Description:
This protein has 5 helices and 2 strands. It is mostly helical. α2 runs antiparallel to α3 and α3 packs across α5.
Amino acid sequence: MLESVIHNRQEGYYEALRQSDEAGDGTPFIVFMLESILAACKEIECAEKKAADSQKTSQISSQKKLLAAMKSNPKVSIAELTGILKLSDRSVKNLIVKLKTVGAIKRIGPDKGGSWSVQK
């Protein structure tokens, strides 16, 4: 990331080197590098925030699809949900745990032969 920031600021890089060379002092180059490092950190932070937002949006979408599937077929199995949601068995089970925890769904009866009740 830092390399691409410096590449995009190539003229400033060479200017900072020239100024440091003329002054016999590395301060202009050090300032340039610190500013570049800060810019790279901000880009990384922005990219991480976008990734987190995208993941949260995807999880909310999966929750909505799961609730819709349970509403339309209260006897839907986890295996069927994995196909509907295109998620792994573990991911579906984690979604179910989260939704049970917040009271959005409730299991009525045993794992085999029971059904789902969507509360919200």
